[in-house]
């Protein structure tokens, strides 16, 4: 009797298939702080965040792993099986947007993440003095982080700056706020203030712009004329003395 050919699977693939079927059959899943799906968690700098990862519907002891972004978190031996806890303290601005992920050690596709939403006001202060020659360009730069994202307003001598097309240019990202002034004139002299404000507060930075007189440029035309005169003079001098030069 002819036998029906069987489908051969590599050993590793068979183990993964069995693990997957077992997880599907039992509904094996993880949760962080009772959330079975990825979720954001709002906090503030200086606070602490406690995260607890728990295995659900497991018929055996399951080892857990924690990751901060792509880097694995070191855990003590008694904090790895079926339930695992980590504490983030103190929370700081660099934790904003970072995912903390709990994974099943034998099948890392079984996982759940929490994304930290660290709220903090704009961080901006200080002052700067710029001495710029007339008719040259200047760029005033405010570097500021904040969450939620802040709005920026520019002032000149305590009054809202009126932007002039072709003379003022604004550039803004989530962390950089720039004001560029093209071909500076004496009227641009003064104190510029960058005010970065969000719902949590504001930061300011002052720029004292000093417009200096334009330095006289090197007269290119005069130099070219002098070179021409010297060249012509030498040429005629050589021509006038050519007979003597040839005799020598």
From TrEMBL:
Residues 1-27 form the signal peptide. One of its GO terms (cellular component) is cell-cell junction. Gene3D superfamilies: Immunoglobulins. The keyword Secreted does not apply. The chain crosses the membrane at residues 222-240. Keywords: Disulfide bond, Glycoprotein, Immunoglobulin domain, Membrane, Signal, Transmembrane, Transmembrane helix. Residues 46-113, 122-210 form the Ig-like domain. GO terms for molecular function: cell adhesion molecule binding. One of its GO terms (biological process) is cell-cell adhesion. It is a single-pass type I membrane protein. This is TMIG1 protein. The gene is Tmigd1.
